[in-house]
Batch of 2 targets.
Target 1
Amino acid sequence: MGLLPRLRTLVTFSVLGVILVFGIRYWLNQKSYLFDEKSIAAIARKHVGTASKKSIEVAFGHVVEDLRVKYKGHILPDEDLQWVFVNAGGWMGSMCLLHASLTEYVLLFGTAVDTTGHSGRYWANITDTVLTGTFYQWQEGSLKRVVYKPGDTVFHAVGEATSVSWAAGTWMVEYGRGFIPSTLTFALADSFFSTTDLLTVFYTVKVYAKALLLEAGFYIGTW
Ligand SMILES: *[C@@H]1O[C@H](CO)[C@@H](O)[C@H](O)[C@H]1NC(C)=O
């Protein structure tokens, strides 16, 4: 291929890329959303007491019940709920996906051991409400860490990167809003290239596919 056709291909792909990014941005700004961060945080906060008095399992059970009442038909059924390891940014946690679409997700997240690493930069706003344990966040440019305790909500904005650290036994409820497929590359990167734990990759993709099918079924049903 000569230089000119190559240049033309490059320009075409760049233009398509820019159109795609602006198109998705426009869509994210215009569309209406099922969940909002305040409602999810409020549901999580309601069960902080249960988490400390009884157990995190009982508290998470109540969170799921409340979500099923408020967002009927949008939370995966019990048989599809699965705790899946997440290896990303050098840390290791575990998540239980409750809802996911192309623009939103709700999940339970945490770790049974101390773990630390890079938060990742996402095309999504992510909020975490802590039920038990301690979440440490070190923001870019800062020389101090911020400490989050049960009942606190951590906000992670689009494009932001922080250092994150969780004490053993930190469990939380997480809500993400943005272009969700873009967060998957980070969530799976360490499983692909570091741990090569392809079973975890499979579980993650499988549960995301199930959640997408639930949403597709819901919208076909309401038509
Ligand atoms: C993320 O949050 C910021 C600040 O609240 C907001 O301006 C922006 O639209 C949000 N982005 C998405 C994708 O929801």
Target 2
Amino acid sequence: MPNAVLGPARSFRVLGALAGAALLVALGLLWLLGSALRGAPAPQPTITILVWHWPFATQPPELSSDTCARYGVVRCRLTTDRSLLASADAVVFHHRELQSRRARLPLAQRPRGQPWVWASMESPSHTRGLGRLRGIFNWVLSYRRDSDIFVPYGCLEPREGTAPPLPAKSGVAVWVVSNFQRRQRRAQLYQQLAPHLPVDVFGRASRQPLCADCLLPTVAQYLFYLSFENSQHRDYITEKFWQNALAAGTLPVVLGPPRATYEAFAPPDAFVHVDDFGSARELAAFLTSMNESHYRRYFAWRERLQVRLIGDWRERFCAICTRYPHLPRGQVYQDLEGWFQA
Ligand SMILES: *[C@@H]1O[C@H](CO)[C@@H](O)[C@H](O)[C@H]1NC(C)=O
């Protein structure tokens, strides 16, 4: 039996070959594991957001492929091409066009499970027709902090470089108003303040409208900017505060949500809140008696912070992509009106 004679030597060779194979397999597995850990993560797919109506415009702005990248949001494509309804990752509807054009929603063509976003930066007082929108939208994009996609009108961020000097002042208080309605709280407060405080009024409601480029240089010459929101609602703080006052370099006297809300967005000593005073007369007395060092303290934040305006709808819509991986799936706003009025 040749095998019996050759037996032991052959067995060693077989064992050796087996051990070698096992070692190779183990090394191979280690290599695979190592490369999986070292290697680049699987590429994320690009998210396509279909904007059904461009807000306040018949013609959308140019949307190039790097539109969102310019706002620091990658792998995000905005489109207004409605033929992409079947494949879009989310569709966003701006409320004003739904309200005024009585537009029909493409409900029959909606792919099952496609997230729809309801978008509005207006306050509940200027929003109609929400009752018809029950059980349709999955996510909300608005200035409300509890929105799925929260987009304020502006924010403060760390300053780059040194703060520019405060603009030279030649007037006391300024109010810019395009839609003056006596029943609005801001109109009543103005009427009460005017006998005690020199207020210059500009805007469509006055006989002194301001051109778009004149607004900021004009208001910057005043010590105080009456940052009176058209209506008082939860978190409703608009560009009046961010742009016309803080960015322009004039001290905002705010009428809007409570002080605590403003303090969630800006330092407590960056504004004067009308609710801190028992009457318009007291508020006027406080403003007119302020000396320069006291006034300058309200601008201390400018040394370390700067205003970032978030006014462009492209940037607002790109924010959907930023939030997209974290947004709740399967959520539906059954009572959008109830949510928004709350
Ligand atoms: C300026 O006003 C502040 C606050 O009312 C007061 O404490 C301070 O003494 C005043 N400074 C001068 C120079 O009057």
